[in-house]
Design goal:
Layout lengths: L1 H20 L2 E5 L6 H15 L3 E7 L10 E5 H11 L11 H20 L2 H8 L7 E5 L8 H5 L3 E6 L5 H7 L21 H34 L3 H7 L3 E6 L15 E3 L14 H8 L5 E5 L11 H12 L4 E5 L12 E4 L4 H6 L3 E6 L3 H10 L3 E3 L6 H11 L2 E3 L7 H13 L1 H15 L5 H14 L15 H4 L2 H39 L4
Parallel strand pairs: 1-2, 1-4, 2-3, 4-5, 5-6, 6-7, 8-9, 8-11, 9-10, 11-12, 12-13
């Protein structure tokens, strides 16, 4: 009897596993830069290894082919990126938010159009045998592509390779107001003063106007033109996301009030093996008597495009320090520029940060770089350049393991004194160690978390039980305005009573005074 029950349990589990493994997943990731693919690549590879049939739509040449996965390469995405880099709008991108909105609108429309009208994608859509249980997309303003979820009647899952913002919270069904997480933090105030809060409230609402009037309407036109669905379906699809896999984690310096379907998988890219370190670099770090400082401005930023005063300030400051420098620098192709500075075009960053003699990381503040420094417990000096760099590094600065300098006003004395403060004050290293321990301490690894929740969404296609949509709950109920109204009524009655009694007392006092004056004897 027991043996029969055991076989029955095994059969049920086996059937459930087979049901999950039979799932067909379509991933849509249109961006040319490498960071998003460092997030999705290990997740998609793990899903393939677990038996899922995965198809990925991406640009030509990025990412590299993943074994067992079907790739649909959209060559036009590459051309669209090149056209964008030569756009006249790009010249005013960093100085004008409305120009930024126009640029974002053009970029996302071109991406959506290039994908939907690609020959390979068209062939997939015309094949009646094709079906998908899940459509997984990068969380950006490519709303027209949400129509793929309706076309295949598939579960929608989003992947946010950058930090969360109010638009992603809206897609996740989180109606909580936020004046601290913009889409683009350019010009956004980082302090918490009253005037900054007002400025940031205006800033967020300006972004909402930009998205509403500039970014979303072209996506709606493309959505209607290609799929033939209504504007109501377009709006409803924004509430169909089961999960948002977010490249974030509370240990990075900012806890959030997330709804259940926002899943933090920050550090998932660390599940992949780090690049190997060559013997010369290893020996250079091993023999560093006073420790090592590592400088990298990210994968996408070339040193030759940095301002000359910034490069000169860095070189002069390094000459005043005792530490050895490992510098990601494509300008010098010879590995050893001097005995003190080791320059490389491609640095095995994770291996360097994990070296016990690395004492400081000078970075532009890219999200993946910040996570890798936190993982290895290395204090940071932030030299942010654009987009999310300032907000990323500011989080860990507020937590106590980093400092930030303005790259536009960089001088040798300030740079050197800040580096020495980070090296010599033990509070930064101590805080970095504490944050590293917190970042690593999880019940499941980020990759296991991402895979488990993705399969949860496959097992439970109806997302209503883990979403909190603003349309499902009244404004009065969400903000407990009924309680405020009750307290307000009580407070109002007390105030009204005090005013009334004061008025009656004053009237009585005035009448008594008048009566006394009238009855005074006339001399």
């Amino acid at each position: 009897m027991r043996l029969g029950c055991a076989w029955l349990v095994f059969l049920c589990l086996h059937l459930e596993l087979e049901l999950v493994q039979a799932a067909r997943i379509l991933g849509v990731f249109p961006f040319r830069h490498s960071s998003p693919f460092q997030i999705v690549r290990p997740v998609l590879r793990a899903l393939v290894e677990r038996g899922h049939n995965v198809t990925m739509i991406s640009p030509e040449g990025i990412p590299e082919d993943i074994e067992g996965m079907r790739h649909i390469r959209v060559e036009k995405l590459n051309q669209r990126t090149r056209d964008l880099m030569h756009s006249d709008l790009l010249q005013g991108f960093l100085n004008n938010k409305w120009i930024e909105g126009l640029l974002a609108s053009e970029m996302h429309y071109n991406m959506s159009e290039a994908i939907l009208y690609d020959d390979g994608v068209q062939q997939m859509l015309r094949d009646r045998r094709e079906r998908f249980d899940m459509v997984m997309l990068e969380m950006s303003s490519i709303d027209a592509l949400y129509g793929l979820g309706e076309f295949y009647n598939a579960t929608l899952v989003g992947v946010s390779s950058l930090r969360l913002n109010w638009n992603i919270e809206d897609l996740a069904g989180n109606p909580a107001p936020s004046i601290s997480e913009p889409i683009s933090p350019l010009g956004y105030a980082m302090d918490t003063s009253f005037l900054s809060m007002i400025h940031n409230w205006i800033y967020i609402n300006e972004e909402k106007m930009l998205v509403h009037f500039l970014v979303r309407p072209p996506q709606l036109r493309l959505f209607k033109k290609f799929f033939g669905y209504s504007a109501e379906t377009f709006r409803n699809l924004r509430g169909r996301f089961s999960l948002i896999l977010s490249n974030s984690h509370f240990s990075l310096g900012r806890a959030r009030a997330n709804v259940p379907n926002i899943i933090e998988i920050g550090g998932v890219h660390l599940s992949e093996a780090p690049e190997p370190c060559d013997e010369k670099l290893q020996r250079f770090m091993d023999e560093a008597e006073h420790g090592v400082i590592y400088l990298s401005m990210g994968l996408e930023i070339l040193v030759r495009f940095l301002p000359q005063n910034m490069q000169q300030s860095l070189m002069q400051s390094f000459s005043r320090l005792k530490q050895r420098i490992v510098w990601k620098n494509e300008v010098s192709m010879s590995p050893n520029k001097t005995d003190k500075i080791y320059m490389m075009e491609k640095v095995p960053q994770r291996h360097v940060l994990a070296h016990p003699k690395v004492r400081l990381f000078i970075t532009q503040g890219g999200m993946l770089s910040v996570m890798e420094a936190v993982y290895s417990g290395v204090p940071m000096l932030g030299l942010p350049l654009f987009f999310d760099h300032s907000s990323n590094i500011n989080q860990v600065r507020q937590a106590g393991m980093a400092e930030i300098l303005d790259t536009n006003n960089l001088n040798v004395d300030t740079l050197t004194s800040t580096i020495l403060e980070l090296l010599e004050n033990p509070k930064y290293a101590q805080k970095a160690k504490e944050m590293s321990e917190s970042f690593r301490d999880r019940p499941m690894s980020p990759l296991e978390t991402a895979v488990w929740w993705t399969e949860y969404a496959l097992r439970h296609p109806n997302p209503t039980h883990i979403r909190l949509n603003s349309e499902d709950i009244s404004l009065m109920r969400y903000y407990r305005l009924d309680s405020l109204l009750t307290y307000g009524l009580r407070f109002g009655l007390v105030i009204a009573s005090i005013i009334f009694l004061s008025y009656m007392w004053f009237q009585n006092y005035r009448n008594n005074r008048r009566h006394i004056v009238i009855n005074l004897p006339i001399k």
